[in-house]
Amino acid sequence: MKYFNYHTHTDYCDGKGTLEENIISAVSSGITDLGFSSHAPVYFNPAWTMKEDRFASYKSEISGLKKKYENRISIFTGLEVDYIPGITGPGSENIISKNLDYTIGAVHVLGRPDDDSLVPITGNSMSFEKSVNEKLDGDVVFSVKEYFRLLREMLINEPPDILAHFDLIKKINVDYVLFDENSTWYLNEIYDTLDVLKRTDVITEINTGALTRKKADSLFPSDLILNELCAGKMPVTVNSDSHSPSDICGLYPETFIKISKTGFKSVKRFVSRGCWTDYEIVT
Ligand SMILES: [Zn+2]
Ligand SMILES: [Zn+2]
Could you list which residues have their CB under 5 Å from ion ligand 1? Predict the structure, then answer.
């Protein structure tokens, strides 16, 4: 089957390799549709985002490469946009004015940059717990609930085309010391978020980067969520969230076998802005 990847980072943000190096790797890996999704610029310039003054060259370089490689691969321009209420999100003026093919919406931070309460969802369980206690005036359970609350708010107020890594928050709990994914309060957050997602057209990505980049010991999202997405016939696509040309379709064959066994029949394929079609999974 053909492979698509709409979640690709390069040296325009925190990824490795130029746009072209990533395209060459994609072509040789069997990817037919490649979307770039650098972390969108935001005014406080966190280390992982593209700088605003680089966007024009990002767009024009992609456009040139699209023509150069048009007989071998389809190339699209996207951004992975952080949702920080009132500051940035997939529905921000600054993002809409960029005329992208699509957006991937993500929550990577809790708190706010303007009152020094920003807590990135990164690091290990100890460092995360410390940041939450110091900056968010809350505990870990509060912060996990806050993560899912922000996802729901984004899905309702500023729906992106694709929802990034549904349960990214498990990244800071790889040692399972902070919370139990089977606890009732955690499951309630998952089901509440699925309920909101069900009422939108947003595509949920099945993100292999959790495993290729060793951020978690299962895919984003976890099996329970995958089963619910499948049972609810909700749209999904497989993305690598690659940060290096070598990971551009990391674990795709295994992932397609897995989701086919789960019961998924198709993944979404980009056609044109706002328009995605079903592509049958063949394993
Ligand atoms: Zn992300
Ligand atoms: Zn990403």
Answer: 106, 164
